[in-house]
Structure formats: structure tokens, C-alpha cells
Write the C-alpha cells for this entry.
Amino acid sequence: MGGVDDHTVVGRMLAVLDAVADLADAATLAALTRCTGIPKPTVRRIAADLCARGVLLRAGGSYRLGPRLLELGLRTAAKDSLRLAAAPHIWDLFARTGEIVWISTITETSHFLLDSAFGANRASDMRRPWPTTIRSMGFLTTAAGRILLADRPELAEELGSQPIPRLTPYSLTTWPRLIAAARAAAEDGIATEREQSLLGYSCMAAGIRGPDHTVVGVLGVLGRAHAMALHRFTRPLLAAADDIEQALHRAAGRPVGRPASRAVGRLTEGAEGTGGLDIRCPM
């Protein structure tokens, strides 16, 4: 039970983690010292460092595994299953649109690029930084951020006191307008923005729901605003998102029917003078 002290920093850290996992609720400092054979002051220091980083939690006189480990595990699982499910559909969508097609994965705290398809003429566009923290106001103003905000409305309550940055002259900079955009995304299953998060670029995004029906990823099409015909991409994007969801559910042994909630929206240009595109379902 527990790891063996190999006298290296990483080895000792892993030995402590293994011992916490094995001991469950009995993972006291004394028990960890006994299981690992590491001196008690060293175990105390390692455990304190891991607690500070969310890898361990301390409750009373014992330790337990923390949320950081769960997030890393979920991120790894999401990467593998979502990438495998999405890969053929990303390239098919790229062939149909000619624009940058990307898919990201989302955890409780993070958003990061998982895979993409694009031509050589778009390579420079992909060098721009991608937001990685879902509680970043810059992320929430993007099309992907609106998809997540629609799925996790508690983020608006948590972050509603923070100002929204004006990233471009067309950015939505008030919470009522951002929430309205998220609600439109929830109704239509798709979010669209034109030059609202990055000047000169337009983006469309659709959420990917896992077997538990929460958003685990976002599929998007990104292009230069002056050349991107957004109205042509709605149906292909929604179809690709549905196909990826189906592949995820089949891999998990839980096939489901196509979501009835995905509507093919009608693009209405210049909604409320935002300089962007808003989506509204046909009546």
C-alpha cells in the first residue's frame, strides 16, 4: 500500500499521492509517514504544497485527493475521446467551408484548443493566443464563451460584478447584452459574433454535449470577417456538432437521438447596433 520512497522530489510526491488514495479517509500525517517511509517533516511539507495547488485537500486531521487531479483526469479523457470523435468531422467541415475549423475542450476551470483544420493561407491566423480560463471576461465575450455561458448561467452570477472589456469597437460590453447573446445561443444551439472579440475576424460556434448532457467542448468556424459568409455555415456546423455528439455517446455506450433543441437559426445582421451578427430562430 502506498508508494516507495525513492528519495527524488517527484517520486516522493507520487508516493504521498498513492498513499492518500490507498488510505482514503484514514490518510493522516502519521499514516502517510508510515506508508511511505518518508520522514514526517518532509511528508508534511509535500502535503502542504499539494494542498496549496488543489492536488490534495485537508479536512480535519486527514488528507484526501483534491479537485485538481479530477480536472486533469477529465481533461485527459476529454482530449482522447473528443479528439477521436471530432477528427473526421473537423476535416469534412473544413472542406465544406474553406475556413479555419477548430474544436476545444472545456473543464470546470479551463478552455483550450484541442484540434483544428485549416489551409496554409490560414497558418498565421492560428498563431494568435487562445483564451484558456473560462472565468476570463475576454473568453466569455467570444462565441465559445457564449456557448458556455448558456450552459453554465451561474457564471453570470459569479462574475456579474466584473466589467466586460471592450476588445474591439463592436464588443458587447454590458452584462444584459452578453446574457441576451448567451440566451440566443441556448435557443439556437449556435453562437455567432463578427469582430466582437477580435477585429477583422468572425466566428461561429456550437456546443458539444457529452453523455451527461453538459457542454464538454465547442466546435467553431473562424474566418476573416470581410470574406466569411456566415449564413452558409449554419447548417454544416450544426450537422457536424450533432455528428460529433453522436460519436461521443456511442463511444460511451449511450447512443441517443439527435437533439431536438438544435434550431437552424436565421442570421439577422447588425443586431442592436453591435456591429455583429445575432441569431434568431424563425417564428
